[in-house]
Amino acid sequence: xxxxxxxxxxxxxxxxxxxxxxxxxxxxxxxxxxxxxxxxxxxxxxxxxxxxxxxxxxxxxxxxxxxxxxxxxxxxxxxxxxxxxxxxxxxxxxxxxxxxxxxxxxxxxxxxxxxxxxxxxxxxxxxxxxxxxxxxxxxxxxxxxxxxxxxxxxxxxxxxxxxxxxxxxxxxxxxxxxxxxxxxxxxxxxxxxxxxxxxxxxxxxxxxxxxxxxx
Length: 215
Fold this sequence. Notes:
five-stranded parallel sheet, 8 helices
């Protein structure tokens, strides 16, 4: 049977990276084969693209160029990592995917969403998440979390999006809400302001129910 593709989405500081790691450990402990990956990145080529996209020094990166770089990273990611794992029946956990492009480059940057979807259709060639967990948090709280994390962990070299004005993050969050409203069966919203343990409990419950249906 084809593997299950699960993506984690949310604005900066929503806690999705913490939660995807917790879920990976949880599923592994139950004997479920997983691949844990992320975007942008996930491959040697994608990781090089990631450096360009997240470097604060590239604040003048054109939005269209930004979009195309994400698309290039995703195409390589699917070919090298996601598609082979799904074909092998493995559960793929991915930190961001196509929804992030619509939310960030569409709603955040103001690029034409239909054009974004057309490009993504070419890139993904039918690879779509079976389940998406959307971690929702107020923009100001999320950005504050993210900036504090970057400072503590020495990640200021990947802070290009955290450095955006708060209005940008509000637009991205509204974009995610619009996506969730349009695809309520696939996208499940979780209140990311709760404790990490409480959030993990909700995530595990949702994911386990989906995996049981598909097995």
